[in-house]
Specification:
The protein has 5 helices and 5 strands. It has one domain. A hairpin with a 2-residue loop joins β2 and β3. α2 crosses α3, α3 crosses α5 and α4 crosses α5. The longest helix is centred in the C-terminal third of the chain and has 27 residues.
Length: 211
């Protein structure tokens, strides 16, 4: 008796199913995003320039220990108080007209032992190599938030009439720039730069302690 030939299996439908499953997994799979800080690095400058002399009162020191303890101006501080302390320092406006360092838009207490002007105020951050990453990120966020609050205030003062319905004027300006990134709006860019010039972000990070 002759053997019957085994019927061929049509694998075309199997390929279609595998392709559909692949698309399904690509669409539904969520990819974890790494946390980070957005920073624009300055351009490389090969010229030799002597570092400017910085008055001690224009320097705001923030240190994070390996145990996460926060030292601000050599005094222990809670994280919840860091943002306001940074704002008070940046907005102090203790400079005098005679020295050409007077800040007409600052609303601080104008203490003689704190920063002269936002343009001269520098926040110096230092951490240990074993500092918890979460603590490091929290400190960075609080310091950047201090700058953003003051920038929002100045944008509100200067440009609110152009953004009557915006909750935050400076944020609205940045969002508008992001939407129109391929169509340069010179007026918008000038306004953003004007706010940044009033409250420049001078956040310095020292080398971490080796011990």
């Amino acid at each position: 008796m002759a053997k019957r030939a085994a019927p061929e299996v049509n694998a075309g439908s199997m390929a279609d199913i595998a392709f559909l499953l692949l698309i399904f997994f690509l669409v539904t799979t969520t990819i974890e995003k790494d946390k980070g800080l957005l920073r624009s690095l300055p351009p490389i400058d090969d010229s030799v320039v002597e570092p400017p002399i910085i008055k001690q009162k224009n320097l705001f020191t923030v240190q994070i220990g390996r145990d996460g303890r926060l030292l601000v101006e050599d005094e222990i501080m809670e994280m919840k108080d860091l943002r306001q302390a940074a704002i008070d320092f940046l907005d102090n406006g203790g400079g005098t007209n005679a020295a050409g360092e007077s800040c007409t838009y600052c609303k601080g207490e104008r203490l003689s032992d704190s920063s002269d002007h936002p343009d001269k105020a520098i926040i110096s951050m230092k951490h240990d190599r074993e500092t918890p990453y979460e603590q490091y990120m929290d400190v960075q966020n609080e310091l950047v938030a201090a700058y953003n609050i003051l920038r929002e205030r100045e944008a509100e003062r200067l440009y609110r009439k152009y953004y009557p319905n915006a909750d935050k004027v400076f944020t609205a300006m940045l969002e508008e720039k992001e939407k129109n990134q391929f169509n340069k709006d010179e007026v918008l860019n000038e306004r953003i730069d004007a706010v940044k010039k009033l409250i420049p972000m001078k956040l310095s990070e020292a080398e971490p302690d080796k011990n």
